[in-house]
């Protein structure tokens, strides 16, 4: 890993970390929610972008992280930081279990996508019915601002916490991208049989990817719970989160380090801007969001990062 | 190519200077104190959009009424200005919109409609000590979390279900104990499953047999299976707790399949006391009973407001008088506080003794944020209109039970 590779990531995150110096609470709040999605999308990207295993049910991992943090705090009185660590571990475990069950059964492509969707839906229904998750009433984490409780009085605290996670994951992704594991993942994505013929342990590679992916997306879930302090089954395990994560990664650029972050910021930013401009037309932001999404997928299939790269190359050629 | 440079000529500067007094004139002419902003948070898009729209209507009418009557008198006639935010029918968006309202500088937030939205939004508002007045959300959790900023004007779940059960027993006794068996149909969210759980434990104590509890999601697109199950079980009474669309679907399906229980007794139903349902599907709606929020028909202001809403071609539902009353309650609290100051308004709300609302509650009295006098009423659709059947003190019709198949 050369220092030059780190530059774009550090520049982007550094700039974002400085926003609390001048930005309003409203902007910070927007950044926190967009970046939580970005973090989750980084997790999705590791499995979907690098490994080519397109999951439609990352909500299962996001929700497990979120619920674990909330339940451990609310029902067992665990410290919030410890709960955060446990949440990540449990989400990784959930990832491993889902991976073990579906990859061992050799589910690929749309079959894998469908089975992950089913896992998320089953978990949603269970969380909605069970008592220890608060059932349909959901869970409220008590509002107690303080560093010990992983709650911050100002939005800046949350922003920095999310940025720190994104930085760690970004560095890890970069390291994977340049390393042996990354090469194995890409080999599995491009052609499983060829990879196997070259001596890549396909099952182990996929399992490692989905476990890591679970930990990262679970971390996003934990941060979500700490930030909003309220969870119910359709927030934690709802289809919306699966869709947002994969869209952010796809629009940003599949299999790139910065793609998920840029994708999440661009999509959420666009939504907010259209809402601000056309706020009198209720719901117009959602309509425009859909149109732009279709356009992005149709005309910029390599994502925003890919488009930027192409522009730079064209500039260099001239 | 050179780009034209932006320069400020002397003439332009003079012209701008001449414009200044013109721009300032309206302010000078009015010489009014700054408007007081109240946040209105409603689900204006998504599954609950119809209810959100009704809530906004009520709030808007209240602000119009207050401003037409000379604004907030204690604040030198300051106008009330509503800042409307869209909760998009989910708690996450609601919590984000609270941040927006906070940035707009509102003095209080009214609304929420669904319990999860109210729970999340009031907690988000608590970060800023921003008073939050729940309009409809009935979950008892809302007022038992010890949040100082949260007030509920309408009755909570416990009060409504107690009243509903007591009135059901009275109804059944008067109807010659016609109903012995019950089927519960509920949406699988917070409000439906909470209600079903309570009914499952309470109804057997009151001498009813619960044959089955059927859950359905919101939104649901088809109720045929639920209807067929009801036909097979053949209960005397169906107790549905669903939002608008699902209950309408169920009632229509029951009608189409000629399934006629002796009564449909809804509790906090989204449609059973909704004029749109009554107008669009009069046959399916006829005879349906509901225990729900309702305006006080004895109050002239309520009757006049209902007439005005209907004359404008708008729908009248409980969201309208509830939000109307909540906004007036906030305005009253601001007047009592003597300033648009959050801390003072919270104190004024906690000590409030407000009579100017249009619900059948009596003066407000908040304990732990819950209005103690708040109570539901029982309604029944009779002859294409929604009539009050309980409490008898202001009922305008006698209950029809059991229904003739």
Tell me what the structure shows:
- The complex is a heterodimer of chains A (318) and B (405).
- Helices cover 75% and strands 1% of the residues of chain A.
- Chain A contains 14 helices and two strands; from the N terminus they run αααααβααααβααααα.
- Chain A has a two-stranded antiparallel ribbon with strand order 1-2.
- Chain B is an alpha/beta fold and 405 residues long.
- Chain B is elongated.
- Chain B has helices spanning 10-30, 49-68, 91-104, 115-126, 157-174, 190-205, 224-233, 244-256, 275-280, 282-285, 300-311, 319-337, 342-350; strands at 36-42, 80-86, 109-111, 132-134, 150-152, 181-187, 209-216, 237-241, 263-267, 289-292, 366-367, 370-371, 377-382, 385-390.
- In chain B, 43% of the residues lie in helices and 17% in strands.
- In chain B, helix 12 packs across helix 13 (342-350).
- The interface between A and B is medium-sized, with 26 and 30 residues.
How do you describe this structure in short?
Chain A has 14 helices and two strands, in the order αααααβααααβααααα.
How would the blueprint of this fold be written?
The complex is a heterodimer of chains A (318) and B (405).
Chain A: H1 3-18, H2 25-50, H3 59-74, H4 80-104, H5 109-129, E1 139-140, H6 155-178, H7 180-190, H8 192-197, H9 202-228, E2 230-231, H10 233-236, H11 239-252, H12 259-277, H13 284-299, H14 303-317
Antiparallel strand pairs in A: 1-2
Chain B: H1 10-30, E1 36-42, H2 49-68, E2 80-86, H3 91-104, E3 109-111, H4 115-126, E4 132-134, E5 150-152, H5 157-174, E6 181-187, H6 190-205, E7 209-216, H7 224-233, E8 237-241, H8 244-256, E9 263-267, H9 275-280, H10 282-285, E10 289-292, H11 300-311, H12 319-337, H13 342-350, E11 366-367, E12 370-371, E13 377-382, E14 385-390
CATH class of the largest domain in chain B: Alpha Beta
Spatial order of the strands in the main sheet of chain A? 1-2
* Integer-rounded radius of gyration of chain A: 19 Å
End-to-end Cα distance of chain B: 86 Å
CATH third-tier fold name of chain A: ABC transporter involved in vitamin B12 uptake, BtuC
CATH homologous superfamily label of the largest domain in chain B: Response regulator
Using the 3D structure, state the CATH architecture of the largest domain in chain B.
Answer: 3-Layer(aba) Sandwich
Tally of contiguous helical segments of chain A: 14
Low-pLDDT parts of chain A are none
Shape of chain A from CA axes? globular
Order of strands in the sheet with the most strands of chain B?
7-6-8-9-10-13-14
User: Termini separation of chain A (Å)?
Assistant: 29 Å
Q: What oligomeric arrangement do these chains adopt?
A: heterodimer
- The total of helices of chain B stands at 13
CATH class designation of chain A = Mainly Alpha
Which residue ranges of chain B are poorly predicted, with pLDDT under 50 across at least 5 consecutive positions? 1-7, 20-29
* CATH fold-level assignment of the largest domain in chain B: Rossmann fold
Strand content of chain B: 15-25%
| Mean pLDDT across residues of chain B | 89
Question: What is the alpha-carbon Rg of chain B in Å?
Answer: 24 Å
């Amino acid at each position: 890993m050369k220092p030059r590779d780190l530059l774009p990531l550090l520049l982007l995150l550094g700039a974002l970390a400085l926003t609390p110096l001048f930005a309003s609470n409203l902007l910070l709040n927007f950044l926190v929610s967009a970046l939580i999605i970005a973090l989750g999308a980084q997790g999705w990207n590791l499995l979907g972008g690098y490994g080519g295993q397109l999951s439609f049910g990352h909500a299962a991992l996001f929700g497990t992280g979120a619920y674990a943090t909330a339940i451990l705090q609310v029902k067992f009185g665990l410290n919030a930081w410890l709960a955060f660590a446990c949440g990540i571990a449990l989400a990784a475990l959930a990832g491993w279990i889902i991976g073990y069950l579906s990859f061992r059964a050799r589910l690929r492509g749309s079959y894998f996508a469908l089975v992950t969707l089913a896992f998320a839906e089953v978990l949603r229904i269970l969380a909605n019915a069970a008592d220890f998750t608060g059932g349909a009433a959901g869970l409220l984490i008590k509002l107690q601002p303080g560093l010990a409780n992983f709650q911050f009085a100002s939005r800046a605290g949350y922003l920095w916490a999310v940025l720190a996670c994104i930085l760690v994951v970004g560095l890890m992704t970069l390291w994977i991208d340049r390393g042996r594991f990354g090469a194995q993942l890409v080999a599995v994505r491009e052609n499983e049989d060829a990879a196997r013929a070259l001596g890549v342990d396909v099952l182990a590679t996929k399992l490692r990817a989905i476990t890591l992916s679970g930990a990262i997306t679970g971390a996003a879930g934990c941060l979500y719970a700490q930030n909003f302090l309220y969870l119910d089954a359709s927030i934690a395990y709802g289809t919306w989160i699966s869709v947002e994560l994969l869209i952010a990664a796809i629009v940003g650029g599949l299999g790139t380090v910065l793609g998920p972050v840029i994708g999440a910021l661009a999509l959420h930013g666009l939504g907010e801007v259209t809402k601000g401009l056309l706020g009198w037309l209720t719901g117009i932001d959602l309509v425009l969001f859909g149109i732009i999404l279709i356009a992005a997928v149709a005309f910029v299939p390599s994502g925003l990062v890919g488009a930027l790269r192409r522009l730079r190359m064209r500039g260099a050629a001239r | 190519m050179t780009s034209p440079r932006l320069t400020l000529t002397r003439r332009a500067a003079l012209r701008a200077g001449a414009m200044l007094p013109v721009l300032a004139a309206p302010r000078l002419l009015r010489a009014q104190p700054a408007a007081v902003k109240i946040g209105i948070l409603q689900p204006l898009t998504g599954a609950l959009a119809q209810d959100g729209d009704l809530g906004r209507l009520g709030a808007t009418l209240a602000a119009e009424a207050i401003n037409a009557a000379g604004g907030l008198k204690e604040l030198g006639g300051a106008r009330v200005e509503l800042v409307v935010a869209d909760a998009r029918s989910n708690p996450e968006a609601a919590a984000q919109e609270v941040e927006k309202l906070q940035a707009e500088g509102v003095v209080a937030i009214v609304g929420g409609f669904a319990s999860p939205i109210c729970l999340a939004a009031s907690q988000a508002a608590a970060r800023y000590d921003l008073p939050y007045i729940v309009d409809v959300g009935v979950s008892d959790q809302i007022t038992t979390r010890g949040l100082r900023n949260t007030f509920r004007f309408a009755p909570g779940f416990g009060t409504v279900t107690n009243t509903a059960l007591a009135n059901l027993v009275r109804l059944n006794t008067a109807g010659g104990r016609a109903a012995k068996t019950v089927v519960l149909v509920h949406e699988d969210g917070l409000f439906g499953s909470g209600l079903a759980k309570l009914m499952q434990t309470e109804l057997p104590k009151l001498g009813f047999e619960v044959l089955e509890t059927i859950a359905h999601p919101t939104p649901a697109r088809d109720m045929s299976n639920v209807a067929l199950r009801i036909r097979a079980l053949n209960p005397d009474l169906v107790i549905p707790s669903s939002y608008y669309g699902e209950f309408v679907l169920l009632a229509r399906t029951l009608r189409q399949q000629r399934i006629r229980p002796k009564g449909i007794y809804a509790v906090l139903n989204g449609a059973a006391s909704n004029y749109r349902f009554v107008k669009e599907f009069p046959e399916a709606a006829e005879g349906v009973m509901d225990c729900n929020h309702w305006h006080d028909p004895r109050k002239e202001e309520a009757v006049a407001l209902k007439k005005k809403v209907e004359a404008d071609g708008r729908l009248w539902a409980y969201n309208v008088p509830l939000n109307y009353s909540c906004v007036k309650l906030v305005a009253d609290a601001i007047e009592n506080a003597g300033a648009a100051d959050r801390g003072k308004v919270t104190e004024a709300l906690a000590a409030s003794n407000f009579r100017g609302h249009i619900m059948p509650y009596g003066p407000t009295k908040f304990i732990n944020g819950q209005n103690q006098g708040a109570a539901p009423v029982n309604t029944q659709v009779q002859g294409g209109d929604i009539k009050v059947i309980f409490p008898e003190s202001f009922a305008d019709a006698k209950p029809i039970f059991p229904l003739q198949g």
